[in-house]
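Lab notebook, page 48
Experiment: co-folding of the full assembly
Goal: obtain a model of how the components sit together before planning crosslinking
Operator: M.T.
Materials (sequences as entered):
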Amino acid sequence: MSPPDNTASRRSPPDGAKKHLGRPGEFLESAQPPFSGADTQASMDKVHNLSGGARVWSWRYIVLRRLTQVGFLLLFFGTAHWGWQVAKDVPLLAGNLSASKFIGLIPLTDPFAALQIFLTGHVLEQESLIGAAIVLGIYLLIGGRVFCSWVCPVNVVTDAAGWLRNKMGIQALFHLPRSLRYFVLLAALIITVVTGLAAFEWVSPIGMMHREIIFGLGLGFTALLAIFLFDLLILKHGWCGHLCPLGAFYSLIGKTSLVRVRFDKNTCTHCGECAKICPEPQVLNLKKLDERGYVFSGECSNCGRCSPICPEGSLKFDFKPLIRSHNVQADAIAVQRRTK
Amino acid sequence: MADQGPSGLTSSRRDFLVKLAQGAAIAGTGGLLWGYMLRNEARAAPYALRPPGALAENDFNAACIKCGQCVIDCPPLILKLEPAGGALPIGMPFFEPRTGACIMCPDIPCMKACPTGALSPKLKRIEDARMGLAVIDIENCLSYKGLRCEICHRECPIKGKAITLETHPRQTSRHAMFIPLVHSDACTGCGICEKACPTDIAAIRILPHKLVQGRIGEHYRLGWTFDTEITKDFKPAEALPAAAPDAPVPKTAPGMDYLNEGGI
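Observation: model returned without errors.
Model output:
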Protein backbone atom coordinates (compact mmCIF):
# COMPACT_ATOMS: atom_id res chain seq x y z
CA MET A 1 0.00 0.00 0.00
CA SER A 2 1.65 3.19 -1.15
CA PRO A 3 -0.68 6.11 -1.43
CA PRO A 4 0.14 8.54 -4.22
CA ASP A 5 1.80 11.75 -3.14
CA ASN A 6 -0.71 14.30 -4.26
CA THR A 7 -0.12 16.84 -1.53
CA ALA A 8 0.30 19.59 -4.10
CA SER A 9 -3.10 19.01 -5.63
CA ARG A 10 -4.66 19.03 -2.18
CA ARG A 11 -3.04 22.31 -1.36
CA SER A 12 -4.73 23.98 -4.32
CA PRO A 13 -8.33 22.95 -3.93
CA PRO A 14 -10.40 22.26 -7.04
CA ASP A 15 -12.70 24.85 -8.54
CA GLY A 16 -15.62 25.82 -6.44
CA ALA A 17 -13.86 24.90 -3.22
CA LYS A 18 -14.26 28.45 -2.00
CA LYS A 19 -17.93 27.81 -1.67
CA HIS A 20 -17.18 25.20 0.97
CA LEU A 21 -17.88 27.15 4.09
CA GLY A 22 -17.66 24.15 6.29
CA ARG A 23 -20.82 22.16 6.11
CA PRO A 24 -20.04 19.05 8.11
CA GLY A 25 -19.04 16.07 6.06
CA GLU A 26 -18.82 18.00 2.82
CA PHE A 27 -15.08 17.50 2.56
CA LEU A 28 -15.64 13.77 2.34
CA GLU A 29 -16.76 13.90 -1.26
CA SER A 30 -14.62 16.70 -2.55
CA ALA A 31 -11.13 15.94 -1.31
CA GLN A 32 -8.69 13.81 -3.21
CA PRO A 33 -7.28 11.70 -0.44
CA PRO A 34 -3.73 10.32 -0.20
CA PHE A 35 -5.26 7.21 1.23
CA SER A 36 -7.64 4.55 0.11
CA GLY A 37 -11.25 4.05 0.99
CA ALA A 38 -10.16 1.04 2.97
CA ASP A 39 -8.05 3.29 5.19
CA THR A 40 -11.05 5.49 5.88
CA GLN A 41 -13.17 2.46 6.70
CA ALA A 42 -10.43 1.12 8.97
CA SER A 43 -10.35 4.43 10.84
CA MET A 44 -14.08 4.40 11.34
CA ASP A 45 -13.93 0.82 12.55
CA LYS A 46 -11.27 1.81 15.04
CA VAL A 47 -13.57 4.46 16.50
CA HIS A 48 -16.53 2.12 16.68
CA ASN A 49 -14.60 -0.81 18.13
CA LEU A 50 -12.79 0.97 20.93
CA SER A 51 -12.01 -1.24 23.89
CA GLY A 52 -13.66 -0.31 27.17
CA GLY A 53 -10.54 1.25 28.62
CA ALA A 54 -9.79 3.21 25.47
CA ARG A 55 -13.34 4.48 25.36
CA VAL A 56 -13.16 5.76 28.91
CA TRP A 57 -9.77 7.31 28.16
CA SER A 58 -11.31 9.11 25.20
CA TRP A 59 -13.62 10.92 27.62
CA ARG A 60 -10.72 12.56 29.41
CA TYR A 61 -11.38 16.12 28.22
CA ILE A 62 -15.10 15.84 28.88
CA VAL A 63 -14.38 14.77 32.45
CA LEU A 64 -11.86 17.58 32.86
CA ARG A 65 -14.32 20.10 31.47
CA ARG A 66 -17.05 19.01 33.84
CA LEU A 67 -14.57 19.27 36.69
CA THR A 68 -13.60 22.85 35.79
CA GLN A 69 -17.23 23.84 35.18
CA VAL A 70 -18.40 22.43 38.49
CA GLY A 71 -15.18 23.57 40.15
CA PHE A 72 -15.74 27.23 39.28
CA LEU A 73 -19.33 27.00 40.50
CA LEU A 74 -18.10 25.38 43.68
CA LEU A 75 -15.51 28.10 44.31
CA PHE A 76 -18.19 30.78 43.95
CA PHE A 77 -20.73 28.79 45.97
CA GLY A 78 -18.30 27.91 48.75
CA THR A 79 -17.22 31.53 49.09
CA ALA A 80 -20.81 32.78 49.22
CA HIS A 81 -22.31 30.09 51.44
CA TRP A 82 -19.59 28.45 53.46
CA GLY A 83 -17.37 31.50 53.83
CA TRP A 84 -14.36 29.97 52.10
CA GLN A 85 -11.43 32.30 52.59
CA VAL A 86 -7.66 32.26 52.22
CA ALA A 87 -7.08 34.40 55.31
CA LYS A 88 -9.27 36.20 57.78
CA ASP A 89 -11.78 38.33 55.86
CA VAL A 90 -10.14 37.50 52.54
CA PRO A 91 -12.76 35.57 50.59
CA LEU A 92 -11.53 33.02 48.08
CA LEU A 93 -13.62 33.90 45.02
CA ALA A 94 -16.42 36.36 45.76
CA GLY A 95 -19.05 37.18 43.16
CA ASN A 96 -20.12 35.29 40.08
CA LEU A 97 -19.22 35.02 36.40
CA SER A 98 -20.30 38.60 35.72
CA ALA A 99 -17.74 40.01 38.10
CA SER A 100 -15.76 38.62 40.99
CA LYS A 101 -12.70 39.10 43.11
CA PHE A 102 -10.13 36.36 43.57
CA ILE A 103 -8.42 36.19 46.99
CA GLY A 104 -9.55 39.73 47.70
CA LEU A 105 -6.97 41.04 45.27
CA ILE A 106 -7.50 40.17 41.64
CA PRO A 107 -10.67 41.55 40.08
CA LEU A 108 -12.26 39.51 37.29
CA THR A 109 -14.99 40.98 35.09
CA ASP A 110 -16.94 39.55 32.19
CA PRO A 111 -15.61 41.76 29.36
CA PHE A 112 -18.88 41.50 27.43
CA ALA A 113 -20.87 42.65 30.46
CA ALA A 114 -18.40 45.49 30.97
CA LEU A 115 -18.74 46.47 27.30
CA GLN A 116 -22.52 46.60 27.63
CA ILE A 117 -22.38 48.69 30.79
CA PHE A 118 -19.91 51.00 29.06
CA LEU A 119 -22.41 51.37 26.20
CA THR A 120 -25.20 52.37 28.59
CA GLY A 121 -23.15 55.47 29.24
CA HIS A 122 -22.10 54.56 32.76
CA VAL A 123 -18.49 55.33 33.60
CA LEU A 124 -17.13 52.09 35.02
CA GLU A 125 -14.93 52.11 38.10
CA GLN A 126 -11.31 51.17 37.58
CA GLU A 127 -11.69 47.83 39.33
CA SER A 128 -14.10 46.45 36.76
CA LEU A 129 -11.97 47.75 33.89
CA ILE A 130 -8.89 46.01 35.26
CA GLY A 131 -10.97 42.87 35.80
CA ALA A 132 -12.23 42.95 32.23
CA ALA A 133 -8.69 43.43 30.91
CA ILE A 134 -7.45 40.43 32.91
CA VAL A 135 -10.22 38.12 31.69
CA LEU A 136 -9.86 39.41 28.14
CA GLY A 137 -6.11 38.80 28.28
CA ILE A 138 -6.54 35.24 29.51
CA TYR A 139 -9.03 34.37 26.79
CA LEU A 140 -6.97 36.07 24.10
CA LEU A 141 -4.20 33.64 25.05
CA ILE A 142 -6.08 30.39 25.56
CA GLY A 143 -9.03 30.91 23.20
CA GLY A 144 -12.17 32.95 23.86
CA ARG A 145 -14.58 30.10 23.66
CA VAL A 146 -12.62 28.18 26.24
CA PHE A 147 -15.09 30.05 28.44
CA CYS A 148 -17.93 28.25 26.68
CA SER A 149 -16.55 24.75 27.02
CA TRP A 150 -14.64 24.90 30.26
CA VAL A 151 -16.41 27.48 32.42
CA CYS A 152 -19.95 28.29 31.28
CA PRO A 153 -22.53 26.31 33.30
CA VAL A 154 -25.13 26.42 30.50
CA ASN A 155 -22.75 24.32 28.42
CA VAL A 156 -23.49 21.41 30.74
CA VAL A 157 -27.19 21.76 29.91
CA THR A 158 -26.70 22.10 26.15
CA ASP A 159 -24.15 19.27 26.04
CA ALA A 160 -26.69 17.05 27.80
CA ALA A 161 -29.34 18.04 25.25
CA GLY A 162 -26.92 17.39 22.38
CA TRP A 163 -25.97 14.00 23.75
CA LEU A 164 -29.59 12.98 24.22
CA ARG A 165 -30.49 14.28 20.77
CA ASN A 166 -27.83 12.04 19.25
CA LYS A 167 -29.01 9.06 21.27
CA MET A 168 -32.61 9.59 20.23
CA GLY A 169 -31.65 10.27 16.62
CA ILE A 170 -33.82 13.38 16.41
CA GLN A 171 -33.87 14.87 12.92
CA ALA A 172 -33.44 18.54 12.17
CA LEU A 173 -36.62 20.62 12.23
CA PHE A 174 -34.96 23.50 10.41
CA HIS A 175 -31.56 25.07 9.95
CA LEU A 176 -30.33 28.46 10.96
CA PRO A 177 -27.05 30.02 9.89
CA ARG A 178 -24.43 29.84 12.60
CA SER A 179 -23.54 33.42 11.82
CA LEU A 180 -26.86 34.39 13.42
CA ARG A 181 -25.05 34.74 16.76
CA TYR A 182 -23.05 37.68 15.46
CA PHE A 183 -26.28 39.46 14.58
CA VAL A 184 -27.62 38.69 18.05
CA LEU A 185 -24.39 40.16 19.44
CA LEU A 186 -24.82 43.28 17.33
CA ALA A 187 -28.47 43.53 18.36
CA ALA A 188 -27.49 43.26 22.04
CA LEU A 189 -25.08 46.16 21.67
CA ILE A 190 -27.56 48.33 19.76
CA ILE A 191 -30.40 47.64 22.20
CA THR A 192 -28.04 48.43 25.06
CA VAL A 193 -27.35 51.85 23.59
CA VAL A 194 -31.03 52.51 22.89
CA THR A 195 -32.52 51.38 26.21
CA GLY A 196 -29.61 52.25 28.50
CA LEU A 197 -29.76 48.75 29.99
CA ALA A 198 -27.15 46.03 29.48
CA ALA A 199 -29.34 44.10 27.05
CA PHE A 200 -27.85 40.63 27.35
CA GLU A 201 -27.08 40.78 31.08
CA TRP A 202 -30.77 41.38 31.78
CA VAL A 203 -31.91 38.25 29.94
CA SER A 204 -28.83 36.03 30.00
CA PRO A 205 -29.61 32.42 30.95
CA ILE A 206 -25.93 32.07 31.87
CA GLY A 207 -26.27 34.84 34.42
CA MET A 208 -29.58 33.43 35.65
CA MET A 209 -28.18 29.95 36.17
CA HIS A 210 -25.06 31.16 37.90
CA ARG A 211 -26.81 33.70 40.13
CA GLU A 212 -29.54 31.32 41.14
CA ILE A 213 -27.16 28.53 42.05
CA ILE A 214 -25.03 30.89 44.10
CA PHE A 215 -27.53 33.44 45.43
CA GLY A 216 -30.87 31.67 45.61
CA LEU A 217 -33.37 30.03 43.33
CA GLY A 218 -35.97 31.69 41.14
CA LEU A 219 -37.49 31.01 37.78
CA GLY A 220 -34.16 30.92 35.97
CA PHE A 221 -34.41 27.16 35.60
CA THR A 222 -37.37 27.64 33.26
CA ALA A 223 -35.08 29.51 30.87
CA LEU A 224 -32.61 26.61 31.10
CA LEU A 225 -35.38 24.12 30.50
CA ALA A 226 -36.37 26.10 27.42
CA ILE A 227 -32.80 26.01 26.15
CA PHE A 228 -32.57 22.29 26.85
CA LEU A 229 -35.76 21.56 24.93
CA PHE A 230 -34.78 23.92 22.11
CA ASP A 231 -31.45 22.14 21.71
CA LEU A 232 -32.98 18.71 22.11
CA LEU A 233 -36.05 18.96 19.92
CA ILE A 234 -35.79 22.00 17.71
CA LEU A 235 -32.28 22.94 16.67
CA LYS A 236 -29.12 20.92 17.23
CA HIS A 237 -26.56 23.00 19.16
CA GLY A 238 -29.19 25.73 18.92
CA TRP A 239 -28.24 27.97 21.82
CA CYS A 240 -24.45 27.67 22.02
CA GLY A 241 -23.92 27.20 18.31
CA HIS A 242 -26.38 29.67 16.82
CA LEU A 243 -27.77 32.22 19.25
CA CYS A 244 -25.62 32.97 22.29
CA PRO A 245 -24.13 36.48 21.87
CA LEU A 246 -21.58 35.82 24.60
CA GLY A 247 -20.30 32.87 22.56
CA ALA A 248 -20.20 35.15 19.52
CA PHE A 249 -18.24 37.73 21.50
CA TYR A 250 -15.75 35.09 22.63
CA SER A 251 -15.54 33.71 19.07
CA LEU A 252 -14.24 37.09 17.99
CA ILE A 253 -11.82 37.17 20.92
CA GLY A 254 -10.68 33.61 20.18
CA LYS A 255 -8.96 34.28 16.88
CA THR A 256 -5.63 35.05 18.52
CA SER A 257 -5.54 32.00 20.78
CA LEU A 258 -2.20 30.33 21.43
CA VAL A 259 -3.80 27.01 22.33
CA ARG A 260 -5.02 25.33 19.16
CA VAL A 261 -5.83 21.91 17.79
CA ARG A 262 -3.06 20.97 15.36
CA PHE A 263 -4.10 19.11 12.24
CA ASP A 264 -1.78 16.54 10.68
CA LYS A 265 -2.88 16.06 7.08
CA ASN A 266 -0.46 13.17 6.62
CA THR A 267 -2.21 10.81 8.96
CA CYS A 268 -5.83 11.95 8.49
CA THR A 269 -7.95 9.46 6.53
CA HIS A 270 -11.00 11.75 6.32
CA CYS A 271 -13.16 9.35 8.27
CA GLY A 272 -15.20 12.32 9.52
CA GLU A 273 -15.57 11.07 13.08
CA CYS A 274 -14.29 14.40 14.42
CA ALA A 275 -16.94 16.39 12.56
CA LYS A 276 -19.64 14.05 13.81
CA ILE A 277 -18.79 14.74 17.43
CA CYS A 278 -17.80 18.41 17.10
CA PRO A 279 -20.45 20.89 18.30
CA GLU A 280 -19.09 23.43 15.80
CA PRO A 281 -18.27 21.16 12.84
CA GLN A 282 -17.76 24.06 10.44
CA VAL A 283 -14.40 24.69 12.14
CA LEU A 284 -13.23 21.25 10.97
CA ASN A 285 -13.33 22.01 7.26
CA LEU A 286 -10.38 19.81 6.35
CA LYS A 287 -9.53 21.73 3.17
CA LYS A 288 -8.93 24.84 5.19
CA LEU A 289 -7.20 22.94 7.97
CA ASP A 290 -4.82 21.58 5.31
CA GLU A 291 -3.86 25.10 4.37
CA ARG A 292 -3.42 26.40 7.91
CA GLY A 293 -2.29 23.25 9.70
CA TYR A 294 -4.55 23.82 12.71
CA VAL A 295 -8.13 24.59 13.71
CA PHE A 296 -7.98 28.34 13.30
CA SER A 297 -11.60 29.45 13.68
CA GLY A 298 -12.50 31.48 16.75
CA GLU A 299 -15.65 29.40 16.96
CA CYS A 300 -13.61 26.39 18.11
CA SER A 301 -14.06 26.20 21.87
CA ASN A 302 -11.06 23.95 22.53
CA CYS A 303 -13.48 21.46 24.07
CA GLY A 304 -11.26 18.51 23.23
CA ARG A 305 -13.85 16.21 21.69
CA CYS A 306 -12.12 15.72 18.34
CA SER A 307 -8.65 15.03 19.65
CA PRO A 308 -9.33 11.83 21.64
CA ILE A 309 -11.86 10.50 19.12
CA CYS A 310 -9.50 10.77 16.14
CA PRO A 311 -8.36 7.19 15.41
CA GLU A 312 -5.22 8.36 13.62
CA GLY A 313 -4.16 11.00 16.15
CA SER A 314 -4.33 13.70 13.50
CA LEU A 315 -5.90 16.29 15.80
CA LYS A 316 -3.97 17.26 18.91
CA PHE A 317 -3.84 20.25 21.22
CA ASP A 318 -0.72 22.26 20.52
CA PHE A 319 0.92 25.59 21.22
CA LYS A 320 0.35 27.79 18.20
CA PRO A 321 3.91 29.13 17.74
CA LEU A 322 5.14 25.51 17.57
CA ILE A 323 2.47 24.20 15.22
CA ARG A 324 4.31 25.07 12.01
CA SER A 325 7.49 23.24 13.02
CA HIS A 326 5.49 20.29 14.34
CA ASN A 327 3.69 20.04 11.01
CA VAL A 328 6.99 20.23 9.11
CA GLN A 329 8.26 17.37 11.24
CA ALA A 330 5.10 15.39 10.59
CA ASP A 331 5.48 15.98 6.85
CA ALA A 332 9.08 14.73 6.99
CA ILE A 333 8.04 11.61 8.87
CA ALA A 334 5.32 10.95 6.33
CA VAL A 335 7.75 11.33 3.40
CA GLN A 336 10.17 8.93 5.10
CA ARG A 337 7.44 6.39 5.62
CA ARG A 338 6.34 6.57 2.00
CA THR A 339 9.84 6.18 0.63
CA LYS A 340 10.45 3.08 2.74
CA MET B 1 -33.28 40.19 -19.04
CA ALA B 2 -35.96 37.68 -19.77
CA ASP B 3 -37.27 37.39 -16.24
CA GLN B 4 -38.38 40.92 -15.63
CA GLY B 5 -41.19 41.05 -13.14
CA PRO B 6 -44.22 43.30 -13.40
CA SER B 7 -42.43 45.97 -11.40
CA GLY B 8 -39.61 46.10 -13.90
CA LEU B 9 -37.06 44.69 -11.48
CA THR B 10 -34.88 41.77 -12.44
CA SER B 11 -35.65 38.74 -10.35
CA SER B 12 -32.24 38.63 -8.69
CA ARG B 13 -32.56 42.23 -7.68
CA ARG B 14 -36.06 41.66 -6.41
CA ASP B 15 -34.86 38.64 -4.45
CA PHE B 16 -32.16 40.75 -2.91
CA LEU B 17 -34.60 43.48 -1.90
CA VAL B 18 -37.03 40.94 -0.49
CA LYS B 19 -34.20 39.28 1.47
CA LEU B 20 -33.18 42.68 2.77
CA ALA B 21 -36.73 43.42 3.87
CA GLN B 22 -37.02 39.99 5.50
CA GLY B 23 -33.77 40.51 7.39
CA ALA B 24 -34.90 43.93 8.53
CA ALA B 25 -38.25 42.48 9.64
CA ILE B 26 -36.57 39.77 11.71
CA ALA B 27 -34.14 42.25 13.25
CA GLY B 28 -36.92 44.75 13.91
CA THR B 29 -39.32 42.31 15.55
CA GLY B 30 -36.55 40.67 17.53
CA GLY B 31 -35.21 44.00 18.67
CA LEU B 32 -38.65 45.25 19.68
CA LEU B 33 -39.39 42.09 21.65
CA TRP B 34 -36.02 42.22 23.34
CA GLY B 35 -36.46 45.89 24.19
CA TYR B 36 -39.93 45.20 25.53
CA MET B 37 -38.58 42.43 27.75
CA LEU B 38 -35.99 44.80 29.18
CA ARG B 39 -38.53 47.54 29.87
CA ASN B 40 -40.89 45.07 31.45
CA GLU B 41 -38.12 43.76 33.65
CA ALA B 42 -37.07 47.27 34.71
CA ARG B 43 -40.66 48.30 35.43
CA ALA B 44 -40.53 47.50 39.15
CA ALA B 45 -37.21 49.26 39.75
CA PRO B 46 -38.85 52.21 41.60
CA TYR B 47 -40.03 49.86 44.35
CA ALA B 48 -36.64 48.42 45.27
CA LEU B 49 -34.60 49.46 48.29
CA ARG B 50 -30.96 49.46 47.21
CA PRO B 51 -27.80 49.23 49.30
CA PRO B 52 -26.17 52.48 50.49
CA GLY B 53 -24.56 54.60 47.80
CA ALA B 54 -26.73 53.23 45.01
CA LEU B 55 -26.99 55.54 42.05
CA ALA B 56 -30.36 56.96 41.04
CA GLU B 57 -32.76 54.39 39.64
CA ASN B 58 -31.95 54.49 35.91
CA ASP B 59 -28.22 54.89 36.47
CA PHE B 60 -28.22 52.00 38.90
CA ASN B 61 -30.12 49.81 36.42
CA ALA B 62 -27.47 50.60 33.86
CA ALA B 63 -24.42 50.25 36.07
CA CYS B 64 -25.11 47.17 38.21
CA ILE B 65 -23.33 44.12 36.78
CA LYS B 66 -25.35 41.72 38.99
CA CYS B 67 -22.29 40.05 40.51
CA GLY B 68 -23.46 39.87 44.12
CA GLN B 69 -20.19 40.96 45.69
CA CYS B 70 -22.11 43.45 47.88
CA VAL B 71 -24.30 40.55 49.02
CA ILE B 72 -21.28 38.53 50.10
CA ASP B 73 -19.55 41.42 51.86
CA CYS B 74 -22.61 42.60 53.81
CA PRO B 75 -21.88 41.76 57.48
CA PRO B 76 -25.51 41.22 58.58
CA LEU B 77 -26.21 39.39 55.27
CA ILE B 78 -29.36 41.38 54.54
CA LEU B 79 -28.79 41.89 50.81
CA LYS B 80 -30.31 39.60 48.21
CA LEU B 81 -30.10 39.36 44.43
CA GLU B 82 -33.49 39.17 42.77
CA PRO B 83 -33.80 35.88 40.87
CA ALA B 84 -35.45 35.55 37.48
CA GLY B 85 -39.21 35.91 37.55
CA GLY B 86 -39.23 37.92 40.78
CA ALA B 87 -41.19 41.09 41.39
CA LEU B 88 -38.11 43.33 41.21
CA PRO B 89 -35.71 43.76 38.28
CA ILE B 90 -33.55 40.70 37.73
CA GLY B 91 -30.22 40.10 39.39
CA MET B 92 -29.76 43.33 41.32
CA PRO B 93 -29.24 43.69 45.07
CA PHE B 94 -32.02 44.86 47.41
CA PHE B 95 -33.02 44.51 51.03
CA GLU B 96 -36.25 44.17 52.95
CA PRO B 97 -36.00 46.09 56.23
CA ARG B 98 -38.72 44.18 58.07
CA THR B 99 -36.63 41.00 57.93
CA GLY B 100 -33.16 42.49 57.55
CA ALA B 101 -32.37 46.14 58.14
CA CYS B 102 -29.13 47.87 57.21
CA ILE B 103 -26.92 48.19 60.29
CA MET B 104 -25.05 51.12 58.74
CA CYS B 105 -21.48 49.86 58.94
CA PRO B 106 -19.22 52.93 59.13
CA ASP B 107 -16.82 51.48 56.54
CA ILE B 108 -19.65 50.67 54.05
CA PRO B 109 -18.30 47.26 52.90
CA CYS B 110 -21.07 46.68 50.34
CA MET B 111 -20.21 49.89 48.54
CA LYS B 112 -16.51 49.02 48.61
CA ALA B 113 -17.22 45.60 47.12
CA CYS B 114 -18.98 47.06 44.08
CA PRO B 115 -16.67 46.79 41.05
CA THR B 116 -18.62 49.03 38.66
CA GLY B 117 -19.53 52.00 40.86
CA ALA B 118 -23.26 51.21 40.83
CA LEU B 119 -22.84 51.68 44.59
CA SER B 120 -21.02 54.94 44.24
CA PRO B 121 -17.73 55.46 46.08
CA LYS B 122 -18.75 59.12 46.35
CA LEU B 123 -20.57 58.09 49.51
CA LYS B 124 -18.00 58.78 52.24
CA ARG B 125 -20.14 58.72 55.40
CA ILE B 126 -22.84 56.14 55.92
CA GLU B 127 -24.96 58.88 57.54
CA ASP B 128 -25.19 60.48 54.09
CA ALA B 129 -26.72 57.35 52.57
CA ARG B 130 -30.29 57.74 51.31
CA MET B 131 -31.58 54.22 50.79
CA GLY B 132 -35.17 55.23 51.36
CA LEU B 133 -37.34 57.24 53.70
CA ALA B 134 -39.26 56.11 56.78
CA VAL B 135 -42.98 56.73 56.47
CA ILE B 136 -45.48 56.34 59.31
CA ASP B 137 -48.96 54.90 58.93
CA ILE B 138 -50.59 57.20 61.49
CA GLU B 139 -53.75 55.09 61.62
CA ASN B 140 -51.87 52.09 62.94
CA CYS B 141 -48.97 53.66 64.82
CA LEU B 142 -49.25 52.86 68.52
CA SER B 143 -47.92 56.29 69.48
CA TYR B 144 -50.69 57.97 67.55
CA LYS B 145 -53.13 55.91 69.57
CA GLY B 146 -51.75 57.40 72.76
CA LEU B 147 -49.56 54.47 73.80
CA ARG B 148 -46.01 55.09 74.97
CA CYS B 149 -44.32 53.06 72.23
CA GLU B 150 -41.69 55.24 70.53
CA ILE B 151 -39.59 52.19 69.76
CA CYS B 152 -38.68 53.60 66.36
CA HIS B 153 -37.44 56.77 67.98
CA ARG B 154 -35.28 54.85 70.45
CA GLU B 155 -33.90 52.38 67.93
CA CYS B 156 -33.08 54.95 65.26
CA PRO B 157 -29.30 55.02 64.69
CA ILE B 158 -29.44 58.73 63.78
CA LYS B 159 -30.49 59.52 67.31
CA GLY B 160 -32.76 62.48 67.78
CA LYS B 161 -32.32 63.69 64.22
CA ALA B 162 -34.01 61.28 61.82
CA ILE B 163 -36.96 60.60 64.15
CA THR B 164 -38.00 63.14 66.77
CA LEU B 165 -40.87 63.04 69.24
CA GLU B 166 -43.54 65.69 69.27
CA THR B 167 -45.36 65.85 72.57
CA HIS B 168 -49.03 66.61 72.83
CA PRO B 169 -49.84 67.12 76.53
CA ARG B 170 -52.98 65.69 77.98
CA GLN B 171 -56.01 67.87 77.56
CA THR B 172 -59.59 67.56 78.55
CA SER B 173 -60.88 64.35 76.97
CA ARG B 174 -57.61 63.94 75.07
CA HIS B 175 -54.88 61.47 75.90
CA ALA B 176 -51.29 62.68 76.04
CA MET B 177 -49.33 61.65 72.93
CA PHE B 178 -45.68 61.32 72.06
CA ILE B 179 -45.71 61.30 68.30
CA PRO B 180 -42.74 60.22 66.19
CA LEU B 181 -41.83 62.47 63.25
CA VAL B 182 -39.41 61.49 60.49
CA HIS B 183 -37.03 64.05 59.04
CA SER B 184 -35.86 63.40 55.52
CA ASP B 185 -32.72 65.48 55.94
CA ALA B 186 -31.35 62.92 58.40
CA CYS B 187 -33.15 59.63 57.68
CA THR B 188 -30.88 57.19 55.81
CA GLY B 189 -33.59 54.61 55.19
CA CYS B 190 -31.68 51.91 57.03
CA GLY B 191 -34.94 50.35 58.19
CA ILE B 192 -34.03 49.65 61.81
CA CYS B 193 -37.32 51.38 62.77
CA GLU B 194 -39.34 49.17 60.43
CA LYS B 195 -37.67 46.08 61.79
CA ALA B 196 -38.29 47.16 65.39
CA CYS B 197 -41.89 48.33 64.99
CA PRO B 198 -44.01 46.11 67.30
CA THR B 199 -47.26 46.17 65.31
CA ASP B 200 -48.25 43.04 63.38
CA ILE B 201 -47.52 44.73 60.11
CA ALA B 202 -45.00 47.52 60.53
CA ALA B 203 -46.64 50.94 60.95
CA ILE B 204 -43.37 52.63 60.01
CA ARG B 205 -41.87 51.58 56.71
CA ILE B 206 -39.03 52.45 54.43
CA LEU B 207 -40.05 53.48 50.94
CA PRO B 208 -37.98 54.86 48.09
CA HIS B 209 -37.94 58.65 48.16
CA LYS B 210 -39.42 58.82 44.72
CA LEU B 211 -42.59 57.09 45.89
CA VAL B 212 -43.27 59.26 48.94
CA GLN B 213 -41.55 62.58 48.76
CA GLY B 214 -43.29 65.61 47.28
CA ARG B 215 -41.94 68.99 46.26
CA ILE B 216 -43.75 72.28 46.74
CA GLY B 217 -42.23 74.16 43.83
CA GLU B 218 -40.01 77.22 43.64
CA HIS B 219 -42.77 79.76 43.33
CA TYR B 220 -44.18 79.46 46.83
CA ARG B 221 -42.88 82.24 49.07
CA LEU B 222 -43.64 81.52 52.69
CA GLY B 223 -43.19 85.10 53.82
CA TRP B 224 -44.04 84.41 57.41
CA THR B 225 -41.18 81.97 57.85
CA PHE B 226 -38.09 83.96 56.97
CA ASP B 227 -35.79 81.39 58.54
CA THR B 228 -36.83 78.49 56.30
CA GLU B 229 -34.81 77.11 53.45
CA ILE B 230 -36.97 78.77 50.85
CA THR B 231 -37.05 82.29 52.21
CA LYS B 232 -33.62 82.60 53.77
CA ASP B 233 -32.40 84.61 50.77
CA PHE B 234 -35.18 87.16 51.21
CA LYS B 235 -34.02 90.55 52.35
CA PRO B 236 -36.05 93.57 53.38
CA ALA B 237 -35.88 96.13 50.60
CA GLU B 238 -33.42 98.92 51.09
CA ALA B 239 -34.71 102.49 51.08
CA LEU B 240 -34.94 103.97 47.61
CA PRO B 241 -32.54 106.76 46.70
CA ALA B 242 -34.37 110.03 47.11
CA ALA B 243 -36.11 111.34 43.97
CA ALA B 244 -33.57 110.05 41.51
CA PRO B 245 -35.41 109.63 38.22
CA ASP B 246 -34.96 106.23 36.59
CA ALA B 247 -33.11 105.00 39.61
CA PRO B 248 -32.22 101.32 39.33
CA VAL B 249 -34.65 99.10 41.05
CA PRO B 250 -32.99 97.67 44.16
CA LYS B 251 -32.18 94.03 44.03
CA THR B 252 -34.66 92.31 46.18
CA ALA B 253 -36.40 89.05 46.03
CA PRO B 254 -39.06 88.81 43.34
CA GLY B 255 -42.48 89.58 44.64
CA MET B 256 -41.20 91.94 47.32
CA ASP B 257 -40.30 94.95 45.22
CA TYR B 258 -43.72 96.26 44.28
CA LEU B 259 -44.74 96.65 47.91
CA ASN B 260 -41.92 99.05 48.54
CA GLU B 261 -41.99 101.16 45.42
CA GLY B 262 -42.76 104.79 46.06
CA GLY B 263 -45.42 106.65 44.18
CA ILE B 264 -47.94 103.93 43.86
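Interpretation: The beta strands of chain B are 80-81, 93-94, 133-136, 163-168, 177-182, 204-207.
Next step: discuss with group before ordering constructs.
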